[in-house]
């Protein structure tokens, strides 16, 4: 049933409010923060200001990066003895072939056959990955450099393999290396298609490499777009240092994982499988003809990836170099001829194999982008790109000097004056028309009007442990405001089950006073009030049966019935709606969808006609209404192992007895439609055995619930107690 959760933690100053601890609760009268808290807040502020002045202590290293992708079609790795063949790919002849890469990122697809066994068991990928790593390392160290490269990390997922190497000179400056995988193939999760990613910090720049193999087939553009989006959302790096990319240094940030987008440099390579658009005006034969004539511009205009990027559907913000090489798929393995064998399915040539990147402007320069047409082991040709990248390098001496300057600046701020703040709206906030389970948020704007940093904290009132009543949430609960700056204090009123009981009975009102404590300054009192619109949720049965009009009606407040109704009219309305439209709806009481709950609650409270809705939504409303009653239909204390069901029910107060019989009789009617609604006695007893006792449907078993379920099963089966 519907239970809205409290708003998640959020702070406009980058500080997540901690849960009140016993230590904090015992120090309510202390007029300042614990020194450790103040120290942490100061460090957070210093980290932010240091980040903003990073250009003063950061230098740039121009480094060379090589990235390549190769779908090897499950062919065996090149042996170490023949590793020189890979130089066609790793170091092709071009104007910049004199550049020696500092970083090498090698991506493979289909290193094993993508049969069902390999996809499910994945026991051959490891050996193949190791063999390819040995071959690439041999080519790099024996033919491109004198034993200069070492592997940073290799990561594989079934047929996808990503290897990242750096020159040994840079290895001490490589930190926070983490790999991650995301399967998006069969059932949206298997590894026959997906992505592998490796992230690292090189000097003081962060890099992320992604190797992916996306959905096949010419017309499956939407599938490829979806695979890209899924990889982007699924890949997370949970073992790395989040604060590297979050200068605020908050605890909230530390609880999160890094994602692909949270890096200075992103290089995405792989068999992306985008093809050429074919139609009646452009056939496979036309494609071959343009390839033979080297009319690449004509073909590129029909490239699906180019078209999807132009539409903004995929690789938003990424760049790709100009393509001046022939399509890299599909070749007859062992040759450099496109596969046009009549006994095979003839596919139009396409640039399936691509390399893209994303970085800040002017930090990446493409030096070469091409295909190694000489390598003929696969039905794909490998593709490579050579870049120069501007890597950040922090100079410790300069950074220390900036830190000292910032520290002196903070010291002066803190010593000049006592902190002073002003609060918007005269310290008052009022919420109109607050309804059950519907949150409302407003803000106080706090401005530091003094010359010194203002540390603030919400403090509990005397002899209380919480800073506010249960229906009120304020974020952030503490923070720091530099002079002349402002912070928003988000105040959310959210009446949930515990609060609605107190409000409907008159034991509480929507009024609270918050204490905003400023370290070394004055306390400020923030008054929050609201108008709660009455609701039948959280009321008692006795309260509802004496009201003639809907609870939201003005008449219902002024006039009560001379004679009580047998059952609440709200119960009758819900059951009538279900009886009319819902008896045949499948699994009507097992659906947890709450998308229509708010509008149905509003109609029930105001007496308005129910809008068009799913029967399952009305059933969920009924269950939640029963669960929300201030006093359950069957009080738990009335259940006893020594008492029969008939004695238990006969002993109920009149309105509780009537409600129990009415609901149970309706449930017997529901069971007459079992062939269509798929319900049975056990399922219904599980749900209503809990909500009639005032429990959530998710409540675990207990002796009282077991007794209630048995009583319901007996009544639903026999019609008697």
Automatic annotation (TrEMBL):
Residues 61-396 form the Inositol polyphosphate-related phosphatase domain. InterPro entries: Endo/exonu/phosph_ase_sf (IPR036691), Ig-like_fold (IPR013783), IP5 (IPR046985), IPPc (IPR000300), OCRL-1_2_ASH (IPR048869), Rho_GTPase_activation_prot (IPR008936), RhoGAP_dom (IPR000198). Keywords: Cytoplasmic vesicle, Endosome. Residues 1-27 are annotated as: Disordered. GO terms for cellular component: early endosome membrane; phagocytic vesicle membrane. Residues 1-12 have a biased composition (Polar residues). One of its GO terms (molecular function) is phosphatidylinositol-4,5-bisphosphate 5-phosphatase activity. Gene3D superfamilies: Endonuclease/exonuclease/phosphatase (3.60.10.10), Immunoglobulins (2.60.40.10), Rho GTPase activation protein (1.10.555.10). Pfam families: Exo_endo_phos2, OCRL-like_ASH, RhoGAP. It is found in: Cytoplasmic vesicle, Phagosome membrane; Early endosome membrane. Residues 565-716 form the Rho-GAP domain. GO terms for biological process: phosphatidylinositol dephosphorylation; signal transduction. SUPFAM superfamilies: DNase I-like, GTPase activation domain, GAP. The keyword Nucleotide-binding does not apply. This is Rho-GAP domain-containing protein.
């Amino acid at each position: 049933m519907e239970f809205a959760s409290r708003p998640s933690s959020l702070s406009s100053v980058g500080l997540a409010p901690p849960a009140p601890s016993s230590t904090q609760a015992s120090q309510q009268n202390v007029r300042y923060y614990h020194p450790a808290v103040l120290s942490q807040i100061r460090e957070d502020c210093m980290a932010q200001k240091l980040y903003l002045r990073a250009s003063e202590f950061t230098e740039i290293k121009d480094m060379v990066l090589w990235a390549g992708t190769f779908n090897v079609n499950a062919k065996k790795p090149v042996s170490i003895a023949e590793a020189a063949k890979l130089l066609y790919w790793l170091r092709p002849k071009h104007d910049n072939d004199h550049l020696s890469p500092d970083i090498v990122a090698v991506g493979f697809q289909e290193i094993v056959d993508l049969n069902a066994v390999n996809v499910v068991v994945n026991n051959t990928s490891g050996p193949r990955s190791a063999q390819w790593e040995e071959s690439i390392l041999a080519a790099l160290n024996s033919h491109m450099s004198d034993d200069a490269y070492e592997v940073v990390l290799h990561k594989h997922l079934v047929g996808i393999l990503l290897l990242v190497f750096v020159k040994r000179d840079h290895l001490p400056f490589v930190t926070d290396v983490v790999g991650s995988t995301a399967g998006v193939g069969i059932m949206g999760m298997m590894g026959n298609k997906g992505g592998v990613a490796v992230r690292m910090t090189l000097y003081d720049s962060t890099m992320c490499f992604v190797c992916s193999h996306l959905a096949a087939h010419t017309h499956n553009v939407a599938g490829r777009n979806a695979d890209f989006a899924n990889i982007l959302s699924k890949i997370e790096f949970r073992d790395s240092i989040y604060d590297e990319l979050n200068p605020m240094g908050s605890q909230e940030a530390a609880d999160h994982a890094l994602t692909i987008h949270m890096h200075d440099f992103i290089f995405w390579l792989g068999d992306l499988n985008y093809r050429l658009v074919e139609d009646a005006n452009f056939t496979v034969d036309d494609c071959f003809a343009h390839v033979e004539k080297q009319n690449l511009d004509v073909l590129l205009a029909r490239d699906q990836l180019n078209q999807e990027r132009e539409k903004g559907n995929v690789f938003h913000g990424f760049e790709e170099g100009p393509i001046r090489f022939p399509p890299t798929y599909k070749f007859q393995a062992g040759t450099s001829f496109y596969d046009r064998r009549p006994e095979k399915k003839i596919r139009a040539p396409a640039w399936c194999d691509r390399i893209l990147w994303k970085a800040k402007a002017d930090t990446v320069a493409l030096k070469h982008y091409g295909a190694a047409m000489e390598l003929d082991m696969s039905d794909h040709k490998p593709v490579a790109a050579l870049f120069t990248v501007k890597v950040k390098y922090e100079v410790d001496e300069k950074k220390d000097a900036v830190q000292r300057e910032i520290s002196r600046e903070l010291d002066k701020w803190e010593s000049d004056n006592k902190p002073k703040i002003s609060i918007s709206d005269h310290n008052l906030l009022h919420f109109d028309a607050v309804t059950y389970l519907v949150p409302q948020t407003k803000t106080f704007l706090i401005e530091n009007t003094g010359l010194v940093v203002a540390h603030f904290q919400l403090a509990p009132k005397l002899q209380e442990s919480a800073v506010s009543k249960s229906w009120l949430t304020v974020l952030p609960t503490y923070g720091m405001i530099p002079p002349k700056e402002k912070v928003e204090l988000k105040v959310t009123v959210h009446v949930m089950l515990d609060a609605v009981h107190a409000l409907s009975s008159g034991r509480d009102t929507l009024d609270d006073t918050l204490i905003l404590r400023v370290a070394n300054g004055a306390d400020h009192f923030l008054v929050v009030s609201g108008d709660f619109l009455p609701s039948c949720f959280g009321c008692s049965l006795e309260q509802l049966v004496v009201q003639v009009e809907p609870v939201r009606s003005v008449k219902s407040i002024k006039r009560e019935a001379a004679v009580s109704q047998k059952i609440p009219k709200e119960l009758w309305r819900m059951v009538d709606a279900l009886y009319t439209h819902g008896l045949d709806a499948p699994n009507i009481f097992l659906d947890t969808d709450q998308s229509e709950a708010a509008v149905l609650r509003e109609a029930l409270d105001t007496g308005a006609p129910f809008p068009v809705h799913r029967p399952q939504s009305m059933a969920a409303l009924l269950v939640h209404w029963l669960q929300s009653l201030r006093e359950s239909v069957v009080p738990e204390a009335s259940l006893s192992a020594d008492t029969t069901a008939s004695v238990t029910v006969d002993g109920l107060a009149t309105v509780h007895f009537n409600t129990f019989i009415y609901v149970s009789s309706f449930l017997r009617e529901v069971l007459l439609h079992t062939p269509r609604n798929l319900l049975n006695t056990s399922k219904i007893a599980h749900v209503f055995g809990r909500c009639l006792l005032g429990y959530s449907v998710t409540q675990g078993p207990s002796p009282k619930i077991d007794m209630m379920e048995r009583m319901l099963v007996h009544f639903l089966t026999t019609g008697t107690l």
